[in-house]
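About this split. The held-out portion is used to measure sequence recovery: a designer receives only the structure tokens and must propose an amino acid at every position. Recovery is the fraction of positions where the proposal matches the reference. Here is one held-out target exactly as it appears in the evaluation file.
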């Protein structure tokens, strides 16, 4: 069903015709300008402090972070984490060129397949599009190089994220998505799915007892690639 057909059905249900021209212009103007909502002061920090805030918020929500100086260090960081958690060395990998092009042969014990996740996968390694410092949240839009199943099915999720992709507030992450993504069918920027992930999946719905892994990974580990000179950790 087309967009116009859907909107026409809604109008019929509301027993209302098309909007008057002035109201339509107001709505279209608001959609085009993306006005800012209230942005918390805690995210208005220098770059290094934004990254530190992001890490603190990830850890507060039961996630873990390992910082690496270069892309060539990512395979070792993955291997070290899997060994420390006594996890299998086999994993599903997002078929993103920044991940498939890493020197995985430097860690020959690691085994992976670049594909969507399957229910049998214990570990998935995803490519991080962006992250929000104010809450320690990852933005993971779906596309062919970032299958959404990698965010949900595996018991352990590992996300490789560039420090340069950490922003202060949610609005800035949406700015990146608008600026960098165009759908060839609709011409818009929205993918089919955008997941905002803050820590491992968890729930306290039953007897107010916190249970990790309720609706997705019970472990979330972020490998943070320090690619921004402004946010390099102190020596």
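Reference sequence for scoring:
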């Amino acid at each position: 069903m087309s967009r116009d057909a859907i909107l026409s059905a809604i109008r019929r249900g509301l027993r209302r015709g098309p909007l008057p021209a002035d109201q339509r212009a107001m709505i279209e103007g608001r959609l085009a300008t993306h006005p800012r909502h209230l942005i918390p002061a805690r995210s208005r920090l220098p770059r290094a402090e934004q990254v530190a805030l992001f890490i603190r918020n990830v850890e507060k929500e039961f996630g873990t972070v390992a910082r690496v100086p270069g892309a060539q260090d990512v395979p070792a960081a993955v291997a070290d984490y899997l060994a420390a958690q006594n996890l299998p060395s086999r994993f599903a990998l997002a078929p993103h060129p920044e991940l498939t092009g890493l020197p995985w042969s430097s860690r020959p014990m690691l085994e992976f397949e670049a594909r969507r996740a399957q229910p049998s996968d214990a570990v998935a390694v995803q490519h991080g599009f962006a992250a929000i410092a104010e809450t320690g949240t990852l933005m993971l839009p779906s596309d062919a190089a970032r299958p959404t199943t990698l965010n949900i099915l595996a018991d352990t999720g590992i996300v490789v994220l560039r420090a340069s992709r950490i922003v202060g507030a949610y609005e800035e992450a949406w700015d990146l998505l608008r600026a960098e993504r165009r759908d060839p069918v609709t011409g818009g920027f929205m993918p089919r799915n955008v997941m905002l992930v803050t820590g491992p999946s968890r729930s306290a719905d039953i007897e107010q007892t916190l249970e990790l892994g309720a609706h997705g990974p019970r472990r979330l580990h972020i490998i943070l690639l320090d690619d921004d000179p402004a946010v390099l950790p102190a020596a």
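Annotator remark: The chain has a mean pLDDT of 89.
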